[in-house]
Every structure is written in structure tokens, then in C-alpha cells.
Amino acid sequence: MAKIADRYFTVDPWTVSEAGFDPKHGRVAESIFSLANEYSGARGFFDEDYTGDSLISSYFNGVYEYGAEDPSIQYAGIQKRGHFMVNADNWLAMSLEIDGERLDLHQATVSDFTRQLDLRNGVLTRSFVWELADGRQVKLTFTRFISMVDASSAYQQVTLTPLNFSGSATLTSRVDFDTRHGADPDPHWEDVRDFNELTAFGILGKTRTSRKRVFTLAKVSFTGVTPTTSTPLDQTRVVGTAYELPLTANEPLTFTKQVTNIVEKDEAVANDAIWQRGLTTSADQADYAAALKTQTGYWDDFWAKNDIQIDGDVADQQGIRYCIFQMAQTYHGQDPTNNIGAKGLTGEAYGGLAFWDTETMCLPFYLFNDLKAAKNLVEFRYSTLDAAKRRAKMVDCEGASYPISTINGDESTSLWQHANTQLQPSTAVAYAIWHYAHLSDDTAFLNTHGIEMLVEISRFLYSRGAWNRKHEFSFYGVMGPDEFQVMTNHNAYTNYMALKTFEFTIETAQHLAKTDPATYADLVAKTGVSDEELANFQDASDHMVFLGDTNGMIEQQQGFYDLPHIDVDKIPVTDFPLYDHWSYDRLFRNDMIKQPDVLMFQFLYNQDFTARSKRLNYDYYTPRTIHESSLSPSIHSILAQELHKFDDAINFFGFATRMDLDNFNRNTRDGLHTTSIAAAWLNIVYGFGGLRSDGPELILNPGLPASWQGYQFRINYRGANIQVKVTAETVTLTATKPTTLTLYGKETTLQETPLNVALPAAWRAK
Amino acid sequence: MAKIADRYFTVDPWTVSEAGFDPKHGRVAESIFSLANEYSGARGFFDEDYTGDSLISSYFNGVYEYGAEDPSIQYAGIQKRGHFMVNADNWLAMSLEIDGERLDLHQATVSDFTRQLDLRNGVLTRSFVWELADGRQVKLTFTRFISMVDASSAYQQVTLTPLNFSGSATLTSRVDFDTRHGADPDPHWEDVRDFNELTAFGILGKTRTSRKRVFTLAKVSFTGVTPTTSTPLDQTRVVGTAYELPLTANEPLTFTKQVTNIVEKDEAVANDAIWQRGLTTSADQADYAAALKTQTGYWDDFWAKNDIQIDGDVADQQGIRYCIFQMAQTYHGQDPTNNIGAKGLTGEAYGGLAFWDTETMCLPFYLFNDLKAAKNLVEFRYSTLDAAKRRAKMVDCEGASYPISTINGDESTSLWQHANTQLQPSTAVAYAIWHYAHLSDDTAFLNTHGIEMLVEISRFLYSRGAWNRKHEFSFYGVMGPDEFQVMTNHNAYTNYMALKTFEFTIETAQHLAKTDPATYADLVAKTGVSDEELANFQDASDHMVFLGDTNGMIEQQQGFYDLPHIDVDKIPVTDFPLYDHWSYDRLFRNDMIKQPDVLMFQFLYNQDFTARSKRLNYDYYTPRTIHESSLSPSIHSILAQELHKFDDAINFFGFATRMDLDNFNRNTRDGLHTTSIAAAWLNIVYGFGGLRSDGPELILNPGLPASWQGYQFRINYRGANIQVKVTAETVTLTATKPTTLTLYGKETTLQETPLNVALPAAWRAK
């Protein structure tokens, strides 16, 4: 199945732009031009009225609504009512009218249209000349940004220059809570309280079912003009003002809107308190110019520490920078009750829900970018431990079962074949605790929140698994990452991840008991963990079923080798996506793999397996894998690079950095593939860079794809910023403080002084 | 799990009755007192107004409505919109009022209440004395029956005797299409046209979504009184008349309502044509007395040919007669577009849908009772062959895939884990064709409709199954009758039934090609069947995977022996029904069996297996079986009897005949377990009687349970009525014409002259 680029945006190392507006790409551009700061996000929709196809959406991280209960679900243990990140208010909303003619790019005549996102400061700029029906022309420039430093602040500026006439215009600026969620068009917001003082207005909105509140305040100012009249709006769930503006030919005027968004997720907080907080925050808000300066400083600093440079492929260069930019926008550890939805804050698809992608795909980016952000991702799971314990009870198990998909910690998926059989969300949390603790040495976390989660997860796994009559422990009726195999037994992924979870739980608990008996006593008091229970975990771990041979070849699940074979390369392109074109059960009765099971855990716990085992499994499973998950190719690319299969490595890398920029899956209109964006970063740093973080010390085996002249990346590790620069001949490494790691199999200490090493021939793709 | 009787009805060999009315048993009694004649059915609800808990339902076989499309289904190949047998008009509806006081047993004071169903004539009688608030008393007797001979005819009679006063009463009689379906309370019927001539009234109703029409006409007459006034009703979807009746103390008066119900399933028929047919049919209708005489004659004749007598247990005697009575009421081959819903025509549960129970559980009753009825059951599947072909396409297969549940031939089940993985509806149709053809010698059917279905079913099976790399044929991702094992491979039931289907298809096709080339040419023209395709079926059959050993012990599916064991006897009673109390996935990850897979096909194709194989499998699977299907115990009982495990045989028989009379499952309120009723018949005739019909000739091995003194049953076979009478010492057999069969392993010819054989000690339970 060949994926084909649909290139629309201009290729440039530091910007993403379109020259001219093609409405057919309207929704794709809205997704691509999304701005966010973890706290909130807004798609790149037009500020002014637009009657063409558009998804006007703004989101606040963790602000969700409940769906209707599904009456078709009649069995126990199945989640009947999901939740989803709800479309919130349009704080950019405005209209522009000149003598009764309203600006609407669906109908207006415009020229010189450009739209550009600058990755160096996160500012989205759009400009064009609007020609009215009678030939009068107005030049318009719109800018917006959401502060990465001051979470509640966002800014909009519009500059208007009448080119060939004088007269007047009406500019209406609004805070609009009357938005509609595309998938559920009933209004989700109530106007709890609002105000309108003509140059300042706002609404305290509340969601219908989840009682989350957002208070949006706008402060409006003009330069180069004074409104002749200001008329307040009177609409349901909308506040704002219409300003009558005198226009003088060729004299620009500027409208500036400073927005404050206050999110309150706690029902106990009084409306008055939110109201006051909003007013105070708004009063203290930096002005546009000052905020823009701070914003630019933030991104300068960010790129200095986290940039990846690719020499020899501008498209990949742009792609990876766009990925890093969107990762940082989506999440940077601002709040431990936030997480990373499958589409970030850029669209409605997957309901804004977070999956186990967070721990397996996204976490490494933060581990090597900002440990505090990484910690907050792990703390998110601690903050939802109670929900995971409730879920475990719901499925007749003990301990804590983490959800397949969630915003608030509760399982949101009603599909039992996923929610009740996929144990990887729980084992991924254990993996994340281990990965974070291992790279951070944060024993304080590990010995409290970390071990508490580990005990509850192991307890869940032990109760969900079972002993067979040969005293072997295994999991029955489970689905691994390969979602084309439903209800399997002895699934290698599930079993291996459970084994690692048991072992890390035992090791951590026993170490704590020995080194810090008082804290261990707290754990016992809190969880009831006992030596006997740890012994059970050990027993299960010691007798875990693995279907493999002495060469290290692993059978994905009981019966996998026996499944009928289909040649995935012969499936017609028109059959994709398979879920839409194949009878559901047909997906499940052959040896086709959606995304890898065995290769996945051989990536996650890479050092546990011999090269021979990895090669055998790669060679067997790769031709059977259809990559219906956008995360799948990067894992194959990383392992291919490790196995010196350089053609595979670059082929699987393929569209990784440009999945959305080139709309490879033709669904970027619904939002960005945020977790694939994380996989693209992995693909360069773990793939071509050869980073491994699962051994006792960091491993680096940088290689170079044949099509690149060179590349460099930076990672932050134990207080040092490490730069790895690769050219065709040389690998140059620096670290801002002395850092020891294994480079090409040899213990090496990096320093500020560059270390130059010849790129080994074995790692140079031909 | 012990099931406990909730005995409420009086035990009697020929009647079912209640003495006194207990509203707590109101809905159970409504189900038990259901009347039907295949064409239509009505629960035993009260004729007059009743404000207590009640399910006022009448049904017409094959008259269904569509449910709403399920928006949660997003995958291909899954049925999104089901259908269900819809509650139709209440043609018994009436009110009785005396001086403003309305009869309502929820509030009225009554004495001497009795209700009785007479199995000898199918008449339901109810009588009581109603005491008004001021002490005035009225004796009331209600009778009703639905004609078994004249499908569209039904009768109601009410006799009223004022015991201690004279005065007047208002009796209102109605045809009421304003009924509500319990599970979907919107009105489902439109009043297309109606009339009201005071002593005759009717409505031609049409269902909203399926456009089925029912024309109900009532003719009303009085004896012993002449109404002083007759006032027509004016209500939506209701016609009728209120009659003012003078009352004279101790002088009975009788109200008689003759009802004609005309069902039209064909949309093409004009309303006028239905209207005229209704009027003509009503005009020709027999009166109450004549109809009752015909009805009694029908049942006299029926019982003479089909009765089972049990000597030594009146409760079982009543139970089995009730079962036979309800089977005959529900279905007797009146129309090949009818089938047998899981609840017959007695309630809403399971949506009135027919399952594969029809072919496996119900068909044998008709094969030995009325071959024409049996043929019509098989012809039902031919009449829905096109729907089965559409369904096969929908699941990306070829040929014909018969639905899990249906009224109109389309799949009605949206649960993919059943509808897309259970192949037993299709193999059951093949089994039924074979069973019918084998017992009837109806080669005309077999060589036309029969072989056409067989080819299409085999084609489906061949396309749904697959070859593995060892050139073995099997089915992957399937569920056998044991619905506690989802998505299994190498399921023994599926594979064995498919093998038998392939073999019978090949045998029938090849025999036809040889003996009747012209008819075979028709088949080829119609189905495109070829020698190559038959060779494929043969190849699949020859290389079908069976996981078994040389002793005949069969593994239910790949990996079954390896499943964690749970002791089903230790599951607390409060956990039942498990679907309500266990997390859905928990049902699926152990070796607990819902209903038997291996034992089931060893029952269906009984002669194919050695006694040793049957014993080994019985001993292994029985302790693992939880019998969450009400069909399950009878299969175990039948095999236990064959294996001379007499304690098991009688224990599993247990509640079979009285499942509903004693409300063992506590859900008889929702309707009768019609297919379990069929299983009870099987349990006696195939179980204790030792009948086997899958060999070249009939086999009989009658035994006697220890708790019975004796029993006798009758079966119709190749034009003979055979009576088998068993006492503690002797088995006596007669046949109305000479019939050869195998009795206790010896070829024996039965005649009109009784043949007395000593009951072998080996078959006598101690």
C-alpha cells in the first residue's frame, strides 16, 4: 500500500505557509495551522466569518463532555458512556463589513493571499487584499498567537488598510460560546455569567454534562483609529461589540484583542472566585508587543536545546521541526492533569482522548527534552489511579486497570474487544514509570507514587491473568497492539510486558523495603501489598508462557504460525482503510498484522533481546504488517536501522516527519496525528541516531541515511544538553557537562569540547 | 447452580390452571396462558381493563418492525438495523362498567377466581365473582380460543350473571391498534382504514417501518339480552362500540365476539383487496359453537397421534403435554414464510426472532409429528435464500450465510461477535435439509431447493474458511454453540458441521448429476456449481482440521485444554445469570462452557462416533458446562441416557418439561422458552426413548427412569403412527402399518399387533 503525498504547503526550513487559498484544502490547513500551548488550542480557522467548509474549534486541555449512554450495551463490565474533548468558545470570532458587504472568503474576491506559521515564534499570520464588489480594495493582515509562557493568554491582531478609498467599516469582535461540536451538534455550553463594557467583554461558560467552566475575557484596543460608535451585541451565548471605524485611504489601522482564558475543572470552586480570577488575570496581562517578545524568547531557547537539523532534505527538515513544534505546543508539562490526545488540541477525531501512545510514543520526547514535562505525564496516571482502580473492579479484577482512552481517567471506550482485552495501557504506565525513574533517578517519585501504581498494576495483571494446569501463568482473551488479532491467548506482547511489570514492581518494592522501611510501611498501609503477593508476582513472572524457540524467534500468540497467510502487498489500494472496506471479522482471520506486537516490545525493552532474535522476528513479522496504525512504520524503521537494513529504515521513515504536512493519510482535515509526530522524533533520534535508553547507560549508534548529507539533534540528559552531529564522514558530539555513555559499543565521556569520531562504515547507508 | 421451581399453577394431566389470582405472577400467567395458532398469538392477558402490571400483546407470525439504526456501529459487515416481531392489535379489548364502577382486577374485590387452559381444546376460561363497592355481585366467565383449523379466526365469549341485583351494565368491545410494544413505546401502527357498524367493526392497520398490514374485524352478538343503546367509539387507532345492557338478577347474558385477522405481508397488494378479503372471510366465518367443535376435533386427532403419557409423575405428564401443546400452537406448517421465534408468539424477548434452534431443536418434533410442517420449516430457509446470499456478500464471502436471528431472512443481530463468527445457522440449515430429506425421501425437494441451498451454504463455508500452510482447511475467528469462547480457531463443532455439509452437498450433487442430468443442468445454470467447486469442497473436507486423539477425545478448539480451569460448581448462585454479573470478557477466559460444542455434534450426528468417544467427551466436557442456555441440559440428558448414566439423565432432564410452568429461570414473564419446550420433547423421545434418526434406519433403545412407572410416546414415520409404551418390565410397540427399525440393536418390524419385548436390564435405571 503506497501512501502518496498531497503537497500543498510551501517547503521551508522554519515556516509553513500557503500562497493563495484553496478551499479544498481548507480543513487540512486549519489543522496544520493549529496553535496551542497545552492549556488551550485553536485550529487555524479564519478569524472572520467564513461560510465555506470549516471546523471552527477551540479546545481546552481536560475540558470534556459526556456522550449519551449507549443503550445497545447490555453486558456487565463494558463502559456505557464515553467522554470527549468538547469544542469550546471561539475567542477569535469577528466580522468585518463595509457598506453592508461582509468579508467572507467563501465568496469574496481576494488577491495576494498568504498564510504562514512561523515555527520560531508560534505566530500565525495571514494577509490578503479584499476587493469589494465596486472595486474598492482593502489590505488585511491577521496575526494570532497563544502564549507558551502565560498559559491563559492569547492574542489577535488585525491590520486594515483601505487602498483606494476612504469611508468606514464595521468590525465586530466577539467571544462566542455558541459553537457546535461537529460530532454532537447540540449546544454544550451554558452562559453562567457575562459582561460587556464595549472595550472589554467576556463570558463564564459551563459545559452541560461535565460542569467544567471556562471564563474567556477579551480586551480590545485600536491604533490608528478611534471607533465612532461602539454597539454591544445581544446574542445567546455570545458577547462582543460592533465598532464603527472611519477609514482613510492608505492609512493602516490596527485592532488588537488580548484574550484571557481561565479554565476551572473543579466543581467546588465558586463562580465568583473564577470571575475574580479572570478579571485580575486579565488586568495583569502583558500587552501584545511584550507578550510577543516573551514568546519569541521562549521558542529561541527551546530550539537551542531541542532542534533537529537535517542537511540534504529541506522537506524532512521542515517536517521534523513542525513535529517538534507541535509536540511542544500540545504538551510541555504545564499541568499534571493534562495529557496528550491522539490529535492533540487540533481536532475532534478520537474525541481528544489520550491512549497508551502517551507512554510509548510521546514520553521519550519529553524524557530527553524536559524531565519535568515527562514527570507530569507519569503523574497524570497517578492522579487517575482511583479511576483505574474503579475500572479494574468493573472488569472483575483487582488493582488498577488503566483505560484504553481517556481524558478524565475513566475508560471512555465502549468497545469491549478493546477496552476489556487490551492490557497495554496498564503495562505502558509501568513502562513509563520505569523509563522515567531510570532516566531521572527520581527515587522520591518511584518510592511513593511510582511504586503505588506499580503494585496496583501488577495486582491487576495478576488477577486478570491465570494459571493453567501445568502451573504456567498467562493471559487469555487479550488483544496486543496488533488489533487485527482479537481474543488471543499467550499473546507475547502482553505476557512480556506483564513479566517486566512484575519484575520492576518486585525489585522496586524489595529495594524500598530494605533501604527505606518507613516509606515501605506507608506503601503497605496504602496498598496492602505483602511478601506473599510479591511472591505471587515472582511466581507468575517465573512461569510466564512464551511461545518461542531457542533462536529467539517468538510466536505472537498461540496459533499465530498456523493462521492462513495473506499477501498484504496484494491488497488493492482501494481496500484501504480496511476497517471501512472489509467485513469486520475478515480483518481477524489471517496472519496480517495491524501494527507490530513482537517488534514493539523488542523496541521498548531493546537490550533484553539478542541481535539474532531481533533479526529473525523482524524478517518474519515485517512482511505480514500492514501498518494500519500510523505509529507502526517508525518502529519498523528504528529496528531496521539497528539491523543495518538501511533501505528498510529510510523507506519506513518515508513520510514520518510529513504525515500531516503532506496529508499522507488524507485525514489531516480531522486533526494532526499528534502521536505519529512523536514517532517521527523517535524515528530520527532512536532510529538514525541509534539512541537506546533501556540499558544501564545511554547507548548511541548514529548512522546516516544515504539521501542525507548530515543531521544533528540535541537531547537533554541528566542535566546536560548533548548535541550529536552526523556528517558523511564524522560524528561530532558535545555535552554541556561531562556525560558518559556508550558510543558504538565503547564507553565514552562527552564534554563541551567536541568529540569527533569517524562514522563507522557499518553505519553508513550506501 | 441449582434451579428451583416456583410452582404456581395446579398440577393436572390435561389442564393448566390457577385458583385465585396473584398479581405477582400476573405476567408469568400471561405467558403460560398464551394462545396461538402459528398465524397469530395472544398472551393470556385479561380481556377487560387492568391497571396492574401486564404485557398486553398479540402477535402475527412474520409481522415485524425495524429498529433504529445503531449509530455506534462503525465497521463494515455488521448489521446496523435489526427487526423484531411487533406487538399488534388487541382484538380482545373490552371494558365493563356498572353505574360508573369499572371492572379492574387491580382494584376490584373478586372471589372464586379461576383461570384454566384446557390442553384438549385450546380454550382459555376464566371466571370469578366481582363484588361492587356497594356489595352487588356479578359472576363473570370469559372464554377465548384461536382456531387451529381456520387461521384467521378467533373467538371470545363473556357470560355475565348479576347475582343479587337487577340494573344495567355498559360493555364496550374494541379492536385496539393503539397498543405499545414494551421495548419501543412509540406507536407502530397506522389506521389505514376502519369501519364501525355497531355490531361489526374493524381496522386495517399498517406498521410504520415495514409496511405490513393486518385487518382485524370483529362481529359482536348477544344472547339473553338486547342492548338498549349502542354507541360507537371515537378514538385514535381504536374502533368499537359501547353497549348498554339491562341486567336481571340471576339471569345470565352472553356476549360473543368473532374475530377475523387478515395478515398481508406483501406491499404490492392493494388495501381494497385486503379489505374485501376481510369482509368475505368474516362473512364466511363459523360461529362460536361450530368453531369450538372443529377445534376440539382438531386437538382430539392431534393427541391421538402425538401424545406422550408419563406414568408416575403427574407434574412431568402435565409438563410434557403443555410442551407439545405449545409447540403445535406455535408452529404446524401452516405457511412456509413463518418460523419459530425463541419465545414463539408469547412475548417480546429475543424480538420474536428465529435462531438455529429451529433446525436443531424444533425440527425433529415436526419430523415425527407432521412432515409437511417439517418441510415448511426447511422451505422457510429456501424462501430467504436471497437474503442469506446478500448477507454472505456483506461479510465478504460467497454463497449463502444464514442469519443468527431473523424474521424476514435478514440478519437482525448487530453483535458482530455472534453474527459474523457463528456459522452454525448455515450448517444447521444443511443439517435440516439432510434430516428432512433422509426421513421423508422427498427427493423432489432435495434435488431442487435442497441442493441449491446446500451448494450456496457450502460455497459460503468454503469462502469463510481458509487453508493454512500445511494444506489443512479450517475456520478461524469463529464461535461455536459454546458462546463463552469467542473468536476461536479449529472449533470442532464448526469444522465437523462444515465437513458434513460439504459431504452431503457433494453426494447430493453427484447423485443428481448421475440420475437426473436435466435437473442437475438447472442447478448448474442457477448456481454455477462446477466439478471443480465440488472438488474444492471434497479437498476441504478431506483436509479439515480436527484436534482429537485416536480414542475419539476431541478438543473443542485450538488451545482449549490449555485454558485455565474454573470449578463451575463453586460459582455462587447470586452470580447468575452470568451475563448480568460478570464482566463480559471474564466469561471468555477459562474452560467454562455455556452449552456444549462437542456433545452437540455428537448428538446431531450420533452414529458417526464410537461409544468410547462419546463417553470420553461427555466425561470431560460435562463438568465444565454451565448450561446458561436452556437447551443445554437436554442434550446432556440424552447423551447420558445413551451412556447408561441414568442418574445424570434424569437429573439433566430435571426441569425440562416444566421450565415455564414452574418458572425455573424466573423469566417466563417475558414469554415461553419455546425452543426449550422442543428440547423437552427431544429429551423424552431421543433421551429415554433412545430414538436415533441419523442412521440408515430408525433406532430405538427405550429405557425407563427410576422415578417413573412407565411412559408412552407416539411418532409418525413414513406414513405409520408408531406407539412406544414402556413399563418397568415390558416395552410394547405398535405401528399403524408395517415399519422396520432397529430395536435394541436388532432389526425389528412393527405392526398393528403389539410387539412385547422385555425391557433390557441394561436400560432400566436403578
From TrEMBL, chains A, B:
Pfam families: Glyco_hydro_65C (PF03633), Glyco_hydro_65m (PF03632), Glyco_hydro_65N (PF03636). Residues 18-260 form the Glycoside hydrolase family 65 N-terminal domain. Residues 321-681 form the Glycoside hydrolase family 65 central catalytic domain. Residues 691-750 form the Glycoside hydrolase family 65 C-terminal domain. Keywords: Hydrolase. GO terms for molecular function: hydrolase activity. Signal peptide: none annotated. Belongs to the glycosyl hydrolase 65 family. PANTHER family: GLYCOSYL HYDROLASE-RELATED, MALTOSE PHOSPHORYLASE. This is Glycoside hydrolase family 65 protein. It comes from Lacticaseibacillus mingshuiensis. The lineage of its organism: Bacteria, Bacillati, Bacillota, Bacilli, Lactobacillales.
